[in-house]
Structures are given as C-alpha cells and as structure tokens.
C-alpha cells in the first residue's frame, strides 16, 4: 500500500500526475534515442498489463468492497485488550489492510491519542506498507503465489518482531516519551472510512456506499494502471539495455552478500509497492537471487517515502531509527529464509 506521490484516491489536484508524466517522458526519450525500440517497449507493457488484468480487477473490486462496507473500521478492534494480543492482531491486520500510506497517519494518530501501546502500533506500521489485497493479487500474478504468500508471512513476521522488540525495550531511552508534540493530524485521503464502525456487507442498498464503492474502484484502478504501466515500460527497458551479467554479478548467487545488497539497494531505489513487482521480475530474469528479491521488496516497502513519513510525522527521530532498524533486520532474515526455502 505504498505509493510515491499520491494515494489511490488522490487526484493530485490540477497538477499533472507525476507517474503519467514520467511514462510520457520515458517513451519520448526512447522514441528520440532508439526509435526502433519504441514499439517493442509499448507492446511488452501492453502484454504485461493484459496478463495482469484479472488480478488488477480482483484487487480493485476487493478494495471497493472493503471501502463501501466500512470493513476497514474493524481494524480498530485490534488495538484493545492485552498488549501481546494487540501486537499479534496488529501485525496480521497490518498485512491485509487496504490502507494507503496517508490514511495510516490519522488512523495511528487517533490510536496513539487513545492510549494504544507503541508496540502494537509499531507492529502495524511495519506490516502495513508491505502487503494489502491489491499487492497480493498483483504479486501473485507476476512473481507467483508462493512469493506473494511468503511476502505476506514475512510482513506479518516483521510486524511481530518489531512489536515485541518495542514492548521489550519500552522502558529504555529509545522508546521513552516517543511521540512528537502533535497539532491536528490529517492525511491526503481523509479518514479511513466515512461509515460507522459496524460494517454493512450488503452495501448496495445505500447510495453513499455505492458511491464509495465506485470512487474507490475507479480511483484504485487508475492508480494501479498508471504505476504498472510505468513499471512495465521500465522493465522492458531494463531487460533490453541492462546487461544480465551485471545484475547477476551484483545481486546474484548464494550467501548473505546479495541479500544484504538487495535490502541496501531496496531502501533508496524503491519507487512504489506495485511498481516494484514488475521491476523485481525483471531483475530476477537477469540473475537477481531469490533472497535478494525478498529483502529488496521488504526493506524498500517499509522505508519508502510514504510509509516512512507516516512514522516520522508522529514519533521522535530515535523511534524512527528503531523502525528502520527493525525493518532492515527483518528484511535480511526473511531474505535468508526465502533463499533457503527456494534453494
């Protein structure tokens, strides 16, 4: 649920969307510098979009359903009760919740204001940027169901790790008085849901819920289309222009080094959770190790700009550094585990 510039429901105002602009600029550059490669690049992207279309459709409808029914509000129930229970539920729900990154800010701010422990919030923060229904569907369609399931489990495991580490270190200087002084917190998406806390599964009987379904479906559909179109174009260019031997030499092979480099490169290079999927597919085709691919998507997803801002906006720098540290350790462990599993 990580996005670079806008959330699925954010139109970007009157400004031209940066993802569409980047796509146009890249295609124009290809036309000017290597015109013979323009149509193969476009054809590659169109075929990739067509093959992913069923997964995109399922993801879009699933998110629209969750928005229209108000099922997102059930997440708040994870943050009541015993702390250990809260950590488990926050990690699990963080891995499946369809929040965009900007929605996390007001949601978490409200929970912290209500006294939810930082350990449970940390679990949600770490798992939340890594997986959601749309991400799972697209990852399954491109990288395979096994990789998508492994990433989902890794996201939840990372949330559990960060949550329990935070709980065990709650009395240390790192987590003492962790919150920034807050004024009114908002997000570009507004609140998580305009409806009451009790979901209404037969949402089509209310005009407001039908509108929410339509807006969420169209908004997320356009959001996924623009990022995947950009990603598939970049993937086509990477496969054509970047030597496979170079990728294999840096991120290929066995052992800890490619996994560490995958996490290290993933943090600054990560554009968008959805756009990263085709790029990782291209890197795997060119020799990237499976463990490095997993560490790349985990470290990059947690440290990407929207996910990081959601944490930075609410806690002091030392807690933010702990958040990044947990993410890096978890990405390395998950990368090693996945590398060992796939052999």
Quickly give the structural class. Answer: mainly alpha
Largest sheet: number of strands, sense, barrel closure: none
Radius of gyration: 20 Å
H/E element string? Answer: HHHHHHHHHHHHHH
Estimated share of beta-strand residues: under 5%
Oligomer: single chain
Alpha-carbon distance between the two ends: 29 Å
Number of strands: 0
C-alpha geometry: globular
Q: Spans with pLDDT under 50 lasting ≥5 residues?
A: 1-13, 183-192
Structure description:
This protein is an all-alpha fold. The protein contains 14 helices and no strands. It has helices spanning 18-33, 38-69, 83-96, 101-113, 118-127, 133-143, 145-168, 207-241, 244-251, 256-269, 273-285, 290-303, 305-312, 317-342. The two termini are 29 Å apart. The model is unreliable at 1-13 and 183-192 (pLDDT under 50).
